[in-house]
Specification:
With 281 residues, this protein is an alpha+beta fold. It contains 13 helices and 7 strands. The longest helix is centred in the N-terminal third of the chain and has 14 residues.
């Protein structure tokens, strides 16, 4: 996969993130990097859909169809990509992965649980990844002058997942898009989603085939504690990133039992689903 560099302090990690941004060739205010945080170094970047095991790819259409049928009281938008984002937001198993434009948000999810275990921060240059897209998708981004897609932009080129997958020509590609502003959680987390053009093809496979587009840092447990303290001082907490009573309860639980928090949002990125009572990895 990606070569992982072990950091020894908050300052070292902060400098490494800044260097990664400079290497991507963009101004700090216009970073092309997106980030995911894993609370345990043993976790992997596997989609919720793939975690179902078995012939999970065959279940994708059934999951989405029934989600749309029973979620009829909340219609996020007309595009299938709106429904995928809404499903991911509420914990539906999808091919999508959660990311964020903010390294601090990703570090929150890397450090909010499992304090005694090493964590991981991953970043990908989404501009570089998008240069590998099929021509119709690349042209759509160029026309809009955009770094990432919106759901409407994706729908113009690929009305459904079958059309999206059909663009690959047998070579899986990775596309990043911003979800609709479903609630404050999406906005506060600077959320981004990624979709691979083959549901059985996972991010780590894609990264192995495209070296140089990602960087990863291993955060030892001791450094994880230091980073967590820095984030709390900066108010990067559950109260802010998961607005509502659920986020407040998560923050209070962690605050009053900092050495015992082992569950929570461990599946990386800016997890739009917020509180998840299962352990992902």
């Amino acid at each position: 996969m990606v070569e992982m560099v072990t950091v020894s302090s908050w300052r070292e990690l902060d400098e490494a993130i800044n260097e990664a941004g400079r290497s991507a060739g963009a101004l700090p205010a216009h970073s092309t990097l997106v980030f995911r945080g894993l609370a345990r170094s043993t976790y992997s970047h596997v989609s919720g859909l793939a975690r179902l095991k078995g012939d999970y790819a065959a279940l994708e259409a059934h999951l989405l169809r029934n989600f749309r049928k029973y979620a009829h009281r909340q219609a996020p938008g007309p595009a299938i990509w709106d429904w995928l984002a809404l499903g991911q937001h509420h914990g539906l198993p999808t091919r999508l992965l959660d990311w964020t434009f903010s390294p601090l948000v990703a570090l929150h999810f890397a450090t909010a649980s499992w304090p005694g275990e090493d964590a991981v921060l991953l970043t990908v240059d989404c501009a570089a990844a998008h240069r590998l897209l099929p021509d119709p998708l690349r042209a759509c981004l160029d026309t809009e002058g955009a770094l990432v897609f919106t759901t409407e932009m994706l729908a113009k080129v690929a009305a459904d997942l079958a059309c999206f997958d059909g663009l690959s020509g047998g070579r899986p590609f990775l596309a990043f898009f911003e979800p609709p502003s479903l609630d404050e959680r999406v906005i506060n987390q600077s959320s981004v989603l990624s979709a691979l053009s083959e549901p059985t093809f996972q991010l780590e496979q894609w990264l192995r085939e495209h070296s140089g587009l990602a960087r990863a840092w291993l955060i030892p447990a001791g450094v994880k504690t230091e980073i967590r303290q820095r984030l709390d001082q900066a108010n990067i907490t559950e109260r802010v990133l998961l607005p509502g009573l659920g986020g407040l309860a998560d923050w209070l639980r962690r605050y009053y039992s900092p050495c015992d928090i082992e569950s929570g949002t461990d599946d990386g990125g800016a997890s739009m689903a917020g509180r998840r009572n299962h352990v992902s990895g």
